[in-house]
Design goal:
heterodimer, A: about 170 residues, mainly alpha, 7 helices, about 55% helix, globular, disordered N terminus, disordered C terminus, B: about 260 residues, alpha+beta, Alpha-Beta Plaits, three-stranded mixed β-sheet, two-stranded antiparallel ribbon, about 30% helix
């Protein structure tokens, strides 16, 4: 790529500026939405500045690894993005992660990108559910959707909930 | 940035902008960037051709009227989440809703004898669907599973025409309530992938096999065709089986006995 032309450099500076602006517009310095798991965490699956610039490449790369090669423990799983970045409504349900003002929408609106991903991919993590069977389903979902090690805490939390419920059921 | 070889480069514009951003911010972000790129490229190998997944169906054990395998497939693969578009009549809905596995009933005109068998993607060694696909979306994994990469499928449906088993479905409608595990959307072709998510997670059965066994029929046996010690290979050695449309010489991964 010929990144030495003037236009390119200007475009780059502009986009970098846009990204800073987007960051500034959202709560504090972050586009992370309140009520999402990410809001209570320190770091994304890669350094934040790297994620801002390269998440689309990472997703595409790892999508091929999963679908074509059957590698499920990918670093950049779309299911995992949604698991951390979808904001809870408060009643156990989630806002679709690409709704207006939600995590996967704000920046994209700004740069006029419209994602097709969510025509097929779920926009929400599996709902929090109260019954044992449903939670089991949620666990299966996570096991099969290839969450990476960084998200192990989520599974632990779910396991604890599952155990708590099964104790109640068997009582 | 590394890319998977088999994927066409269709992201020129972003790569262009992305690289420029990298250049602009190189001083501060370079170490992090290099680190992340290295991670993204360090491939754990994925599936290999040391195995070939296949199936043996005993149609003697496949019970007339039983649809357990179909139901299990539909819930395993999120097909049961699809809703009939408002106003669509029964015939159209039955014709258009996706079916990864279906029951076929054969009746011998002479003797009246009835044979039941589940029909699904036969996971051919030489799959016609792959031959005709213009984008490479139809492909065969190293472990023999034939499937659609819906990220590259353009919905042309050549593969559906080419398949002698009528094993593929096209999604005609917008889909809204997918589970996180079963992405699906309008305009792509899909078919049985031998419960690939289970296999990748180390599982050794498919949903249809489990359901059939649970109901006491044991008509479906899934396993590794290349492992001489697998239950599947043993069963194939022990009894005579056949490929449907063996004349096409596709070397199907799904075999049938008592047909």
């Amino acid at each position: 790529m010929h990144s030495s032309t003037g236009i390119v450099r200007v475009a780059g500076v502009l986009l970098a500026g846009a990204l800073t602006l987007i960051g500034g517009l959202a709560s504090g310095d972050s586009a992370v939405t309140p009520g999402s798991r990410a809001a209570g965490m320190d770091a994304c699956v890669a350094p934040t500045d790297v994620m801002r610039r390269n998440h689309m490449e990472f997703l595409k790369h790892d999508r091929d690894r999963t679908v074509r090669k059957g590698v499920r423990d990918i670093e950049y799983s779309l299911a995992a993005c949604i698991g951390c970045h979808a904001a809870e409504k408060g009643n156990g349900d989630y806002h679709p992660v690409n709704d207006e003002g939600q995590f996967c929408s704000g920046c994209h609106e700004y740069v006029a990108v419209s994602l097709t991903c969510f025509q097929c991919h779920s926009k929400k993590p599996e709902q929090k559910m109260s019954t044992l069977g449903a939670l089991q389903g949620e666990l299966d979902g996570d096991r099969f959707s290839g969450l990476q090690p960084g998200a192990a805490a989520i599974i632990d939390e779910q396991l604890q909930r599952l155990h708590a419920i099964s104790r109640e059921v068997s009582r | 940035m590394k890319h998977c070889k088999e994927q066409p480069e269709d992201l020129k514009r972003r790569e262009f902008i992305g690289k420029t951003v990298l250049a602009a911010g190189a001083a501060t972000v370079a170490p992090g960037v290099l680190l992340a790129v290295a991670n993204a490229g360090s491939d754990s190998e994925g599936v290999n051709d040391g195995v070939r997944w296949g199936m043996l169906v005993d149609s003697n054990k496949c019970v007339d009227g039983c649809t357990k395998c179909v139901e299990a497939c539909e819930s395993e693969n999120g097909i049961d989440r699809m809703q009939r578009p408002p106003g669509q009549d029964d015939a159209m809905w039955d014709a258009q809703r996706p079916q990864w596995i279906r029951k076929v009933k054969l009746r011998d005109k002479q003797t009246g004898e009835i044979t039941n068998l589940p029909m699904m993607c036969q996971h051919c060694e030489f799959p016609p669907c792959v031959d005709v696909c213009p984008t490479g979306a139809s492909f065969k994994r190293a472990d023999g599973i034939v499937m659609v990469d819906r990220h590259t499928c353009i919905g042309c449906r050549y593969c559906m025409m080419a398949c002698p088993y009528k094993a593929r479905s096209f999604i005609h409608q917008n889909v809204d309530n997918q589970s996180i595990r079963t992405p699906r959307g309008k305009g792509c072709v899909e078919s049985c992938n031998l419960c690939v998510h289970r296999i990748d997670a180390g599982g050794s059965t498919t949903a249809c096999q489990d359901a059939c066994s649970k109901d006491g029929h044991q008509a479906i046996l899934f396993g590794d065709l290349k492992d001489p010690d697998s239950d599947l290979s043993k069963a194939l050695r022990a009894q005579s089986s056949r490929q449907i449309r063996a004349d096409l010489e596709l070397n199907t991964g799904v075999r049938y006995t008592s047909v």
